[in-house]
Design brief:
Blueprint lengths: L2 H4 L4 H14 L8 E2 L1 H8 L3 H13 L3 E4 L3 E4 L4 H25 L8 H8 L2 H18 L1 H23 L3 H22 L7
Antiparallel strand pairs: 1-3, 2-3
Helix pairs in contact: 2-4, 3-4, 5-6, 5-7, 5-9, 7-8, 8-9
């Protein structure tokens, strides 16, 4: 039996999950101040689990904690977004090459299956954490647009991976990456910090 099935969920984890959802939904938009006292009052808890949740979110790069200034939702500049895309695209290009050699994992082709097909859970984890930062920077509409773009290329990507055709798989992926970048310009729910 797995230990995590028996472990009770810590209060700070539940608060962290709630805050994460509110941040990604832009209910708490980039740059918004996060007042521990107000949050604790809103959740009906003491400041301690809120403080611990904020530390976790800071470690994930979703909030910024500054001594004597407090805590706020992280903001991303145009350069930050460009850099995030660059690193994500390196990981994705690697995953496409690996998946073309190995063939696709079983199941309908989606973003997670691409990385599963590549066989490296650490690359998948890194890509997902970077994509979370893009969702924060560009708003909820970006996540929807990203999924729509991947759905468009999924059949051709899956077919290419099934044939072990690295060139065609790479072409399908580049089409997705280009659509996603174009969509990023229109999806930004709030202006990016300069």
């Amino acid at each position: 039996m797995h230990d995590d099935l028996l472990r009770p969920r810590a209060l700070y984890e539940a608060i962290g999950d709630s805050l994460r959802e509110r941040i990604f939904a832009h209910e708490l938009p980039p740059g918004a101040a996060l007042d521990e006292i107000a949050l604790a009052r809103g959740y009906g808890v003491s400041r301690t689990p809120v403080r611990e949740a904020l530390k976790v979110l800071a470690h994930e790069g979703l909030v910024a904690m500054e001594p004597r200034r407090g805590c706020c939702v992280a903001e991303f500049s145009h350069n930050d977004v460009h850099a995030l895309f660059g690193v994500i695209e390196l990981l994705e290009a690697w995953a496409v090459r690996e998946a073309a050699h190995r063939g696709p994992a079983d199941g309908p082709m989606d973003y997670a299956l691409l990385f599963e097909s590549a066989g490296n859970r650490y690359a998948a984890d890194a890509a997902n954490r970077l994509r979370e930062k893009l969702r924060l920077a560009l708003g909820p509409a970006f996540g929807d647009r990203d999924a729509e773009c991947f759905t468009r290329i999924a059949p051709s990507l899956h077919a290419a991976l099934s044939r072990h055709d690295e060139a065609q798989a790479g072409h399908a992926w580049r089409s997705y990456a280009d659509m996603r970048r174009q969509g990023a310009h229109t999806a930004a729910a709030v202006p990016l910090a300069a």
